[in-house]
From TrEMBL:
Signal peptide: none annotated. InterPro entries: Methyltransf_11 (IPR013216), SAM-dependent_MTases_sf (IPR029063). Residues 92-134 form the Methyltransferase type domain. The lineage of its organism: Bacteria, Pseudomonadati, Pseudomonadota, Gammaproteobacteria, Pseudomonadales. Coiled coil: none annotated. This is Methyltransferase type 11 domain-containing protein. It comes from Halopseudomonas pachastrellae.
């Protein structure tokens, strides 16, 4: 895909190629640093969520490791349907409206045909009082420099700004409860330099600085006149799918970030 097309539309074939490039990069030193930091954030944030059903969609299915699966039933969605993932179109999820307690978008908006359509579909699946947990690459960071310079897959990924995302969430009836940032070191290929710059992580975390390479937003769907109660589970719970909804299969184009 040409660099100029990144600001407009992208074909599904180009998007799948881009996702595969980024997934291969996750095995690099910088990619491992990213996943380790995001797992730590996810573990902290999910402790505040409750319910029965969690769905994750996005870049790295392996992000949802057993130690962070705090909800009883967890599913993975993916456009390619790799591994244990359920093959799903980003704008046509197989769940009824308000069927899920938590939806995790792991850089889903950064690798999307239409970020707004994906966010709308994910938000509709969340019940009142449920949560959206969104990981995104921060354009206002050293990682964002790679994006604006057009280097590798960084130049073609979406890099939706957290400020714009908060506006979208507000329009969809969500309130952002928490924002966490991580990966204050640049995405260098050298593990030696990543170790030497480790002090940037502690400096950024202590100051609560917003310039990390990724951000994580925890947003809650607003509800009127009711307080959700923590559900009591059985000792040996049955694997129960949330309500499903039939959907048509259509192709979509990116219509801007």
């Amino acid at each position: 895909m040409a660099r100029g097309e990144a600001a407009g539309s992208i074909s599904q074939a180009d998007l799948m190629r881009l996702v595969q490039e980024a997934r291969q990069w996750l095995a690099s030193p910088a990619g491992c640093m990213l996943l380790d930091a995001e797992r730590q954030v996810q573990r902290e944030v999910l402790s505040a969520c409750f319910g029965q059903h969690l769905v994750q969609y996005g870049l790295a299915p392996e992000l949802l490791t057993p130690e962070v699966r705090v909800l009883r039933h967890c599913w993975l969605l993916d456009m390619s349907g790799e591994g244990e993932s359920i093959a799903t179109e980003e704008a046509h999820w197989p769940f009824a409206p308000q069927a899920l307690d938590v939806v995790v978008l792991h850089h889903g908006l950064d690798f999307s045909l239409s970020p707004r359509a994906l966010l709308r579909e994910a938000s509709q699946a969340v019940r009142a009082g449920g949560h959206l947990l969104i990981f995104g690459f921060n354009p206002l960071s050293t990682w964002g420099w790679q994006h604006y310079l057009g280097r590798d897959w960084f130049g073609e990924a979406g890099f939706v700004s957290p400020a714009r995302l908060e506006d979208w969430l507000e329009l969809l009836g969500f309130a952002v409860e928490k924002r966490l940032d991580g990966c204050y070191r640049p995405p260098l290929a050298s593990p030696t330099w990543l170790r030497r710059l480790a002090f940037l992580e502690s400096f950024g975390q202590r100051g609560g600085l917003p310039g990390g390479g990724f951000y994580c937003l925890l947003a809650r769907r607003q509800m009127l006149g009711a307080t959700p109660q923590r559900e009591r589970g059985r000792v040996f719970p049955a694997l129960v799918m949330p309500p499903l909804a039939a959907g048509s299969r259509r192709a979509h184009k990116r219509n801007g970030r």
